[in-house]
Every structure is written in structure tokens, then in C-alpha cells.
Write a structure and sequence with these properties.
The protein is α/β, with parallel strands linked by helices. The two termini are about 15 Å apart. It contains twelve helices and nine strands. The strands form two sheets. The protein has a five-stranded parallel β-sheet with strand order 7-6-5-8-9. β5, α6 and β6 form a beta-alpha-beta unit.
Length: about 300
């Protein structure tokens, strides 16, 4: 059997990592980005499966390239092309794939599917995205903040927009690292209350929910946004666009933040909706460095989990 059973580690949410482990992963990702150990191949002879129910650009390409650069083989698994799409259970699929693979990355809708898969797999499982969490994105976000600001603890991060999976993982990341996070969202679009409760009990920083984007952006070191309409929510598009029309990152909002504030977006961006061209392409934008950092943090994560 490939992989391991005893001591298996999964990465389903940020809570699966300690503060020290997060800091070490970011340090390692920065080393990898600098070219350190570029000839090191810890995944040589290992195969990693990518099971994706949702379309993907950054998650798929960054993981496939990262696995290759670490010496491993990636195998893309389309649910329509394996027996899971014809009624085989998640549990049986997880058990069988664990016999072939050394690790599995899932990008799916229901977070419960990720949890069920991981509970039956005997190899490490990584959540590449679910409707509830996006922890791989959060690691890249933390790396980008460290890269641009030199620290995490005490940073003031303003997230403007929908309290979605990205917001949930950012809140967890802030709690783990001492970032002060403020979420500005319309009523009814707050992050998950269970995430907020746990984060507030675990955090050494502030976690604030409010309605006014300009108030959230005040004195911010980092301003972050995501699309207003996530995958699977297309039927709510017009309603959400109406609710979020005042939650755009534009030059006026950016003026409320610190002069050297950086702007982040997990991409893809709907330019002209949640963010304007002048901000996304402007001098404060770190959006494309952030996208690149998906590769480096995921390589560090793979090194850490796959033994």
C-alpha cells in the first residue's frame, strides 16, 4: 500500500496546522521561491491524485507544476470519468485510491465530502477548495503578507465583500497568526458563525464584523476581496450584485487605508465589480505575486505532508 496510515496528516482547514507549523511552511515557501533546493525531489517515485469537481486555473496548475518540480507524478481525476460519477461511494473511492496514490487533493462543493473522503483515506488529503474553506489560498495569502510586510502579528487586514470560504479561511489564519482582521459585508452575508466563535476564542488579535467598507479599510495594511458571486451561486447573481454594489475596492476606498497598503484578490477577478482595473493593476496591488505564491506554499505543504 502506498502512503501511510499511522501519523497521517490531512489539511482540510487552517486549524489542521499549528501556529509554528504555519510559520515554518511560510519560511520554507519563501526558501523555495528563492530557488533553494531547486534540485531536491522529495516526491520522486510518488503519485498524487487531483480530484476536482469544480473548474480550476490556479489550484490545478500550481499543484500539478509543484508536484512535478518536487519529482512526483500528478494524476487528474475528473468525477465524470471515474466510478464515483456512476454511484460508487466516497468511502470506497477513498479506500481504493489510497492503495494507488501517496496523497489526494480535492476541490469540491460540500465540505462534508472532503471530511468524509479524508476519514476513509489512508494517505494525506488536501482540501484544494470547498464551499466552506479555502485553506491553500490562505497559506499563499499569509506568505504574500509576510513577503510584503515582513510580519504577520499585528497586521491590520480588511476583507471587503462576501463572507465566503475565502473569508472563513482568512479568519482562521488571522486567529492562528495574530493578524487583526475586519470583515465588511452586507447583512446576511457574514462569515460562518462557528468559524467566528472558534477564531475569537483562539485569537490574540481583533476579529470585527461591520457594514461600512471605508471604516473597515481605515488604517489597513492589507485590503482583500473576492468575487461577489462564487461558483454554484449563479442563480443569485443579480441579487448579490445589488447587495454588494457599495463593496468595491476602488481608488476612493484605497485612500482610507495606509499609503503602503497592499491589495489582495484570490482570483479570478470580475473587474469592474468587486475591484477596479486601476486598483488591481496599480502600484499597491500584490495580486499576481499572491497568485504565484500558491505554487510555493503548496510545494512546502506537499513536502510537509507526503512522506
Amino acid at each position: 500500500m502506498n502512503g501511510q496510515i499511522d501519523g497521517k496528516r490531512d489539511f482540510l482547514t487552517i486549524w489542521d496546522l499549528s501556529k509554528d507549523e504555519i510559520e515554518n511552511l511560510i519560511k520554507r515557501a519563501l526558501e523555495l521561491k528563492s530557488g533553494a533546493d531547486k534540485n531536491k525531489c522529495p516526491l520522486i517515485g510518488k503519485s498524487i491524485g487531483l480530484f476536482f469537481e469544480k473548474p480550476s486555473t490556479r489550484t490545478r496548475v500550481s499543484f500539478e507544476v509543484g508536484i512535478y518540480q518536487l519529482g512526483g507524478q500528478s494524476i487528474y481525476l475528473n468525477p465524470r470519468e471515474i466510478q464515483l460519477g456512476r454511484g460508487e461511494s466516497i468511502a470506497d473511492t477513498a479506500r481504493v485510491l489510497s492503495r494507488y496514490l501517496n496523497g489526494i487533493i480535492l476541490r469540491t462543493y460540500a465540505h462534508s465530502s472532503v471530511e468524509e473522503f479524508a476519514s476513509h483515506a489512508t494517505v494525506p488529503v488536501i482540501n484544494g477548495l470547498s464551499d466552506f474553506h479555502h485553506p491553500c489560498q490562505a497559506l499563499a495569502d499569509l506568505m504574500t503578507i509576510m513577503e510584503k510586510k515582513g510580519r504577520l502579528k499585528g497586521i491590520r487586514l480588511a476583507y471587503i465583500g462576501d463572507g465566503n470560504n475565502v473569508a472563513n479561511s482568512l479568519i482562521e489564519s488571522a486567529a492562528r497568526t495574530g493578524i487583526n482582521i475586519t470583515i465588511a459585508c452586507p447583512e446576511g452575508y457574514e462569515p460562518d458563525p462557528d468559524v467566528l466563535d472558534r477564531a475569537r476564542s483562539d485569537s490574540s488579535g481583533e476579529i470585527i464584523i461591520l457594514r461600512n467598507p471605508k471604516e473597515a479599510a481605515g488604517r489597513a495594511d492589507v485590503i482583500y476581496t473576492d468575487v461577489w458571486v462564487s461558483m454554484g451561486q449563479e442563480e443569485e447573481a443579480e441579487k448579490k450584485k445589488s447587495k454588494f454594489k457599495n463593496y468595491q475596492i476602488n481608488s476612493q476606498l484605497l485612500q482610507c487605508a495606509k499609503n503602503d497598503a497592499i491589495v489582495l484578490h484570490c482570483l479570478p477577478a470580475h473587474r469592474g465589480e468587486e475591484i477596479t482595473d486601476e486598483v488591481m493593476d496599480g502600484p499597491n496591488s500584490a495580486v499576481f505575486d499572491q497568485a504565484e505564491n500558491r505554487l510555493h506554499t503548496e510545494k512546502a505543504l506537499l513536502e510537509f505532508l507526503i512522506r
